[in-house]
User: Fold these one by one.
Assistant:
Number 1:
Amino acid sequence: AYNAGPSRVTRWSDGTMALDQWVDSIPFGETREYVQAVLAYTVIYRARGGVPAPILTAAERDAFY
């Protein structure tokens, strides 16, 4: 939850958005940018390590947040 706190993350999750929409809707710029950076660095780290796996499981990709 970075600087926003876990209770705020729960409030932002209304179960109607795809993950990318949910990340874009985070109202705190610093928190939103942190989440985006973590996801981006996950892709870079896996690519450099030769791991072809997607960053999200099928369940995570298809879930609503």
Note: Residues 29-48 form the longest helix (20 residues).
Number 2:
Amino acid sequence: HGFKFGPIIGKLLSELSLGEVPSYDLSPFTIGRFQATSKSS
């Protein structure tokens, strides 16, 4: 179903390439989301 994401990906890439602030929050997609968190039980 990648075709339905095409328009927003194009918009975000154009904003980023022009040095603009993206119109959508991209923080949930940062590489930091894979950092291990310590959980104590």
Note: Residues 14 and 33 are 24 Å apart (CA to CA).
Number 3:
Amino acid sequence: MNPANESRAGRHEERSVFAVGTYKLLTVIIGTIGVFGFCNNLLVILLYCKFKRLRTPTSLLLVNISLSDLLVSVVGINFTLASCVKGRWMWSQATCVWDGFSNSLCGIVSIMTLAALAYERYIRVVHAQVVDFPWVWRAIGHIWLYSLAWTGAPLLGWNRYTLEIHQLGCSLDWASKDPNDAAFILLFLLGYVEHFLKLFLNRFQEQKDLEPFGD
């Protein structure tokens, strides 16, 4: 474990970042988000399972988003909520790693599923194509594997999960000056840019191909 991270995790007990009233407000906000997030996402999953007419490939992508958001409400918000109540990070370094990993994993899953959902809408409208369940299951599998690959790398030593500046939760070490850590952050961000750039270029090319027909 990096000694700098351990000392950073240890200094949180020495001072508070926010005023007492701010911590109380954050407790209410995060607690409300957690309760509504849990109830609403659980309801989506239950409705999908109960009503057969809702079991469509597109709805399955929405269920995947609800599942990842539900996991955040169950395993992600609790540590931050308790820290807001206490006014500081009150958990161990191992818990910090778990908090950073679980929130990052579910966050990437939600973002990538939204990208897949946007692509599904695009091919439905532009190409009049409808995705089937095998396509959606493959997409979901790839999304989780992609997310696990990026969030698992810090567990193996490429970057790390550390206490954030507000000292209420943990995330990647975005401020590290180490070249390897900086390379991870850069490649991580470029991964998002690549996906959206491909969608933009494909859209641009298709519009260009349709121009002669429009004239």
Note: The chain is about 75% helix and 5% strand.
Number 4:
Amino acid sequence: MVKTIIFDYDGTIHNTLGIYEPAFREAYQWLSEQNVVEEQKIETAQIAGWLGLNSKEMWDTFLPELDQRYKDQASAIVGDSMVRQIRKHRAVWYPGPYLVIGDRRQDLECARSCKSPFIGCLYGYGEKGELDGADYFVKSVEEITGII
């Protein structure tokens, strides 16, 4: 019997390419403006292939010869751009309905952003006050099945 279900985020419950591609293109434009890369057409499929890689793996795969300072700055541009897009509600979720389960305020905010009920886990790293507004509270993983 399965005791734990773990969901991947990128591409499983969230269409990450919708915010990652514009963020990558912004960073690539910056690299081009710094004259450290030549402008080239980069296909969406190539960009999608980097999802799931950490930033070091991505840049080492795409531009292994690029100086690490530029890789670090481009990574920061990607991250900042993705955060801005999420805050502007440009993140694209796969069709719901959803039930979000988590232990931190950010998890609750995620649930609210996709208009979903939220189970606040008091056994994780968050505290009850941090999870105020949760639809349900559980003190153990076993309690979740009674709700879902």
Note: The two ends are 17 Å apart (CA to CA).
